[in-house]
Each structure stands twice: as C-alpha cells, then as structure tokens.
Design goal:
- There is one protein chain.
- This protein has 475 residues and is of the alpha/beta class.
- 44% of the residues lie in helices and 16% in strands.
- Strand 2, helix 7 (179-187) and strand 3 (194-198) form a beta-alpha-beta unit.
Length: 475
C-alpha cells in the first residue's frame, strides 16, 4: 500500500478510535469511574490501537510465486558437438589450435548432445547471420513462448487486466525499444504498467529481478501481479576470435529463458518467497574484472572469464551464506558456525577447519546455477553436498547447457518433473552467480505441488534422466 494512502487510513483510524474512546469514556465515567483516570486510559488505548494498525500497514507483504514456465527448446535448434566445432572452424579466426581446445572443452563441459543454439548460430559462417533482426527474433521466440506457456498454465486470458508489473533481465542485448516494450506491445498491456529492463547484471540477474519485483509489489495495490522474464539473447554475442578465455562462453552458453508470475495474493499460488539475499563483491578489482566484456587484440568483442573465477565465486558464496544462514538455519547450526568462527580467530585458521553448515536442515531442494561443470563442482565441495543434491543442476547443464539466469527455473522444473520429489512444505534454495561479481540467493517454500505430468521444458526428456556423467568428464 502506498504511503499517502496508508497515512490517510491511519489518520482516519486514529480519529475513529479517539471518537469511540471518548464515547465509551463518557458512558463509563457516568457509571463507574472518575473522569481523569478514565480519560487517560481510553486515550492510551486509542493511541495504542492506531499505532498497532500503522505497524501492520508497514509490515512487508508476503509475496508468492503463482507459477512459472521455461522455454521448450525446439529440436531443430539442437547442435551436437561435432556440428558446433565444424561450424566454428569455418571462420578464419578459428585456427586448428582453437578447434582442438573447443573440442576438449565440450567433451569435459558436462553438456550433452541435445543443447540448442539460436537459428543464426546454426549456419556455417555464423557471423553473417548474427544481425539485430536475428537477435530480436531470438528474444521473441524464447520470451513469448515462455510467457504463452505461463499464461496457459495460470489460465490468464486477458493479461492486461492481471499484470501490473513487468521485469525483464537480459544482460547482453539491450535494443531500442527495450525488451520490456516488446512484451508490452505483444500482449497489449496497460499504459500505466510499471516496467524495468535489467541489463549487464550477469547470470544471477534472475534473482535480482525476483527481488525487484518483490519490492515493487510492496507499493502496488493488494493482489497485484508481477511478470518476471529471465533470459539471455546470445545471437549478437558470438565471439569470433581465438582467445581461449573468451571462447569459453561460446562453448557453454545455450538458448533458454523462463517466465514467472509473482503476486501478493496467495490465491492459486504454488510457492511462497521467504528471502532474497544479494552479495556483491565488486569493490575488489579482481572480482569486478573476473567476468568482463572486452575486445581482444584483434578487435573481436567477447566475454573474458578470468582463471581465478572459481576462487572469486567461492569468496562470494561464503559472503552470501553468512548473510542467509541466520535467516534459514536452525539454532544448532548457527551456534556451531559461530563457535567455529570464534575458535578460528582465537586459535588459528590452520589448526581448526571452518565449520560448513548443514543446509539440508534448512532446505529439501537446491537449485545451483548451471554455469558449468566447475561451478557445480565447487559448490558441491564447498557446501559438502551429495550427488543427489546437485542432480538438478548437473542434469540441467547436460540437457540445456548454461542458459544464464534462467537455469535456476529449469532446475526447479526438473525437481518438479520427477513426480513425488516436490511436496507441500518443502523448502527450495536457489543460488545464482553473475558478473560484478555477485552471488544471490532466494529461499522458497512449496505451497502446492505440481499437477501430474506437468513436466514443462522437460516433457520430452525427463524419462531419460538422470544420466550418468563419467568421472573423466567431471574432473
């Protein structure tokens, strides 16, 4: 509720309470009590009632996930490893050494043979087809398909009457008109809609978008709905040089996207959003530059992934779990962590190992950003997770590749597609990493398990998963 409206309501309630108190005081004074003490008591009660109502207005509203949908990658966009390398070699800048590097990287990446690239990347001589129109076409295909599926799942026929807020996150593609404008134009949304396009925020921007939508819902009318679209348009961002650190994104990133509907109304909601915690370590130069868009020596633009990326991600993760731990962990785990921290300070970090909280006591399911095999390995090691706890992340990477900020929604869809895994009351922890460098978390609680056979983007493949990933590919 907006502050002017809240102020008017508070004043009205105060005046009404004061008038009622005066009436009651006059009646009681004439029957039982003296005037002074009774007037003071009634005035105090009126003020207390008004203050209590004001505090209730100031309390943050609960935010719910009504439902979500992931883009179903078409089979025609599938790019097997051999096709990917063969197409890449057709460009003059990709020499034999670079071709061998990409082949080894794909073999050890954890990606499968069914990952998809946008149409422009399926042509030989890719650079000729990575145009602005092709980039817009990719966004329209991914975003509109995901939104259409979401509207169908939620039974929304007239989105202009339901959607009050639109938040889109896409880091590398920021056209004019904006991506939000494209959605407003497609679905004929209202002219007073609140809209934001988040750019340049990296793979963790999906959780930033959720947090922003949550904040906007706090000042929207009760029961308002926010549409969150998370994707990465990779058509215009294909690196055409030979720098190894900049060839990595070409091999790992794949087409994908998701749409989610948030609301302050619990009606028909499937999850409750409990916490969003963001950690940004960009004040350190090493963190700021570890994922950096730049040009190589020959002027080819791409994303440079620093060799210290995993160490920086580990530091960012520690900062994030330190912030979210007190919000979700039981008292015993918090005390163990505190004792370990104090002992390491007093006795020494070499003598006492750090205590890793058991997050299984706080969450039944984990969705770790499928940024790559190394990212999942590092989090599994740092948090002491089992293979089953990171299964959704590994399988998402295998089936869809790194779809940037939308990968967390594919992982949630994987858990729900495995019938019986998601139950009412189950808690879900989403962890995303992104440039800057950021580590963001979101904690959800399941209110309504999925309907039978609601497999979403996994509809045609969930029966084949999980698949075995040989150790040679994981180490």
């Amino acid at each position: 509720m907006s502050s002017p409206k809240a102020g008017i309501i508070m004043i009205t309630v105060t005046l009404a309470a004061a008038a009622l108190a005066a009436t009651v005081a006059a009646w009681l004074r004439s029957r039982f009590f003296g005037p002074l003490h009774l007037s003071l008591a009634c005035s105090f009660l009126a003020a207390a009632a008004a203050m209590l109502y004001y505090l209730m207005l100031r309390r943050p509203r609960a935010v719910y996930l009504v439902d979500y949908a992931g883009f179903r990658t078409p089979h025609t966009c599938r790019v097997p490893f051999a096709s990917f390398v063969e197409h890449a070699k057709q460009h003059p800048a990709v020499n034999e050494r670079s071709g061998r590097f990409m082949t080894r990287l794909l073999e050890r990446s954890g990606l499968g043979e069914e990952t998809c690239l946008p149409t422009a990347h399926n042509y030989i001589g890719t650079h000729k087809y990575c145009t602005l129109d092709a980039a817009r076409a990719e966004f329209e295909l991914v975003a509109f398909s995901a939104i259409d599926d979401l509207l169908a799942k939620t039974g929304i026929i007239a989105p202009d009457a339901i959607i009050d807020i639109v938040v889109v996150n896409c880091s590398l593609f920021c056209p004019i008109p904006s991506l939000v404008d494209m959605i407003v134009s497609k679905y004929k949304l209202r002219s007073d809609i609140r809209s934001v396009h988040l750019a340049g925020m990296g793979c963790s921007a999906g959780l930033i978008a959720v947090g922003l939508a949550r904040n906007l819902l706090q000042v929207a009318p009760p029961g308002a709905c926010a549409l969150v679209v998370s994707t990465e348009t990779i058509t215009p961002n294909y690196y055409l040089g030979s720098e190894r650190a900049m060839l990595l994104p070409n091999c790992l990133f794949r087409i994908g996207g998701a749409a989610a509907l948030l609301s302050t109304s619990p009606a028909k909601a499937r999850f409750r959003l409990n916490h969003v915690v963001r950690s940004l370590t960009g004040a350190l130069d090493s963190s700021y530059r570890c994922v950096f868009q730049e040009e190589d020596a020959e002027g080819h633009r791409g994303i440079n992934l620093n060799k210290d990326l995993m160490d920086i991600a580990g530091d960012s993760l520690r900062a994030n779990i330190t912030a979210i731990g007190p919000l979700v962990l039981p008292a015993r785990e918090q005390l163990m962590f505190a004792f370990s921290f104090i002992a390491r300070r007093l006795i020494g970090t070499r003598v006492i190992k750090p205590y890793i909280p058991n997050f299984s006591t706080a969450f039944e399911h984990l969705c770790i950003h499928a940024g790559g095999r190394a990212v999942i390995d590092e989090l599994q090691r740092s948090l002491g997770l089992s293979d089953q706890q990171v299964e959704a992340s590994r399988m998402t990477l295998h089936r869809f590749g790194n779809t940037s900020s939308s990968s967390l929604w594919y992982e949630l869809a994987y858990i729900e597609a495995k019938q019986g895994r998601m139950r009412k009351g189950d808690r879900v922890w989403m962890i995303g990493f992104g440039s800057g460098f950021k580590c963001n978390s979101a904690a959800w609680e399941c209110i309504q398990p999925p309907a039978p056979n609601a497999n979403g983007p996994w509809a045609t493949s969930i029966h084949r998963y999980p698949v075995h990933i040989p150790d040679v590919l994981r180490h």
